[in-house]
């Protein structure tokens, strides 16, 4: 049942009571919290609207985090559905994930070209079969082997419905056609946005799939002009403003076009927050960032939750 958010809480708690209760263990026997045993903070777009509606900026927007590579933490490796669930135990989040393609053209979640850093396998993703990848386990960022498997893009798209918004980072070896095909096949157009790094790529993707939202790098006034020259409608754009904080006036220029801004705090700005205190995340939001793309989504979300408006038109997207 959907209810409006009537207080300054950023999040609405959702308990997945119908899911089976199981416990996961790492290979060494240590327990990992099972997402099916946990409360979750979810976003629902089904029957309410779409990503286009959600990303239509307004002054009562709810500031959010985007979990870079899904938000890995100790025991929870990058680009794993269990990791996405772990983040959603603490905060609603946009989930940023990476897609590569196997030798037999299966789309899997993987950031690197090779398998060695994130799995117990070897070789290039593009040179092995999906059958081989199915036999592997993911490792966390400390190199600890888990019991978690490499997901396919299709599994992630199906999982995310009524849970989170996705941004899909497409590796250079993956044909756009394959991504669009799976988004359409799973009817994920309403909650999956595609990440682009150049204006020609954004223009090509928009031509191929005009219904999809695009994350486009826009860091200055010249790049605002270049986006407008592509004739991609602003209501199909989320502006990734780079890895350095932008002037308030620049963020306001994007807001005037009703565009959400994503500030990449991963890297130096996340490190600054660790060193100087997490309140720095709140200052980024106060300066006009709407979404913080971060390697520390749980900490960043905690720091910005008090900045949510007491009443928001976006509240309808949070479900109980």
Automatic annotation (TrEMBL):
Keywords: Hydrolase, Signal
Gene Ontology molecular function: glycerophosphodiester phosphodiesterase activity
CDD domains: GDPD_AtGDE_like
Span of domain GP-PDE: 63-304
Top-level EC class as recorded in UniProt: hydrolase
EC number per UniProt: 3.1.4.46
Signal peptide range: 1-19
GO CC field: plasma membrane
A biological process from GO: ethanolamine metabolic process
Lineage: superkingdom: Bacteria
Descriptive protein name: Glycerophosphoryl diester phosphodiesterase
């Amino acid at each position: 049942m959907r209810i409006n958010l009537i207080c300054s809480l950023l999040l609405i708690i959702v308990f997945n009571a119908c899911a089976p209760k199981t416990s996961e263990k790492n290979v060494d026997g240590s327990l990992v919290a099972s997402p099916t045993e946990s409360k979750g903070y979810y976003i629902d777009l089904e029957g309410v609207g779409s990503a286009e509606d959600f990303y239509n900026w307004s002054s009562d927007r709810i500031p959010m985090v985007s979990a870079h590579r899904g938000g890995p933490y100790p025991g929870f490796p990058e680009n794993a559905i269990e990791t996405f669930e772990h983040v959603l135990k603490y905060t609603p989040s946009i989930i940023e994930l990476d897609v590569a393609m196997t030798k037999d053209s299966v789309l899997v979640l993987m950031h690197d070209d090779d398998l060695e850093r994130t799995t117990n396998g070897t070789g290039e993703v593009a040179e092995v079969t999906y059958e081989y990848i199915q036999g592997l386990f993911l490792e966390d960022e400390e190199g600890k082997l888990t019991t978690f498997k490499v997901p396919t893009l299709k599994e992630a798209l199906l999982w995310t419905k009524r849970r989170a918004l996705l941004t899909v980072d497409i590796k250079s070896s993956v044909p756009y056609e394959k991504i669009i095909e799976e988004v359409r096949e799973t009817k994920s157009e309403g909650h999956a946005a595609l990440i682009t790094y150049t204006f020609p790529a954004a223009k090509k993707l928009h031509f191929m799939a005009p219904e999809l939202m695009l994350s486009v790098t826009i860091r200055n006034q010249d790049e605002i002009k270049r986006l407008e020259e592509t004739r991609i409608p602003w209501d199909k754009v989320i502006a990734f403003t780079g890895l350095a904080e932008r002037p308030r006036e620049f963020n306001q220029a994007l807001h005037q076009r009703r565009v959400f801004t994503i500030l990449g705090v991963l890297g130096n700005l996340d490190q600054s927050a660790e060193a100087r205190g997490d309140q720095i995340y709140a200052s980024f939001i106060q300066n006009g960032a709407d979404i913080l793309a971060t390697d520390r989504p749980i900490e960043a979300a905690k720091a910005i939750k008090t900045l949510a408006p007491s009443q928001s038109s976006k509240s309808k997207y949070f479900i109980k």
